[in-house]
Amino acid sequence: MPTPLSQQGNDEFWKTATSSYDSLDWQKKLTSQIRAFIQRQADWLALSSPPATDIKLLDYACGPGVVSLAQTSPPSLIRAEEADLFLPDPKDTPAKFNEEEDYKNFDYAFCSAALHHVDSPSLGVQRLADRVKSNGGRVVIIEFLARDLNALKEGECC
Asked: What angle (nearest 5°) sits at the alpha carbon of residue 74, between those of residues 25 and 46?
């Protein structure tokens, strides 16, 4: 089995890169495009403004929080947590992320510009799907880099 990216030094890279994640012009342009996309798709995503109910949103691999900050009615609480939910064995993820209700039953699970960093995109999408409500929860993947995602197209996951 291949070594997960999180064990290949990727964690150390992102721990230092996140402090300057949106400081370069291309990064500012990309985050602006992501925000604009989410706002244009608000009706399709059923992100009403103001929300009809409290929205529980997982902004996974969020960088500077682009998805959370793009909401037309931002969540009343935004927390940043460090955990790799895409590890091959979920037991390797800190227990609170698998056991506590705060980390389950999301209305939305967004993963923006990050899926190309993981070894198994289909596993990543499945892990996000496991965290949304079984009745009406949505997984939204925003990705710009090409990668062979045929497994997703063929229904291997989700």
From this structure: 105
pTM across the whole model: 0.72
Query: Would you say 59 and 67 are in contact if contact means Cβ atoms under 8 Å apart?
Result: yes
Residue 39 lies in a domain: yes
- Residue 158 in any domain: the answer is no
3 state DSSP class of 13: helix
Domain extent for 18: 5-153
Whether the link from the prior residue into 4 is cis, omega within 30° of 0, is no
Question: Which two three-digit tokens encode residue 86?
Answer: 């895409």
pLDDT score at 35: 84
For residue 120, how many other CB atoms are within 10 A of its CB? 19
Q: Which residues of 56-79 are buried (b: 16+ CB within 10 A; e: fewer)?
A: bbbbbbbbebbbbbbbeeeeeeee
The domain total for the chain is: 1
- Please write the tens of the pLDDT for every residue from 45-97: 877 665 666 778 888 877 777 777 777 666 665 566 677 788 888 888 888 88
Secondary structure of 115-132 in HEC code, one letter for each residue: HHHCCCHHHHHHHHHCCE
